[in-house]
Amino acid sequence: xxxxxxxxxxxxxxxxxxxxxxxxxxxxxxxxxxxxxxxxxxxxxxxxxxxxxxxxxxxxxxxxxxxxxxxx
Length: 72
Prior knowledge:
This protein is mainly α. 83% of the residues lie in helices and 0% in strands.
């Protein structure tokens, strides 16, 4: 699995609340870039659902929280 495929599956998983494939799980374990992408996308989805707003509008907030989280 390459990163493009991983990003596509991550988007699908978060939109449809399905489990990740074994291939994605293995890829996430070894690819820090995709692991970070997964975490950011999940954070955006959670914030979007929590405040009932479109994901696009919460991206800046998620980015701020992500930076703060990683710095601590």
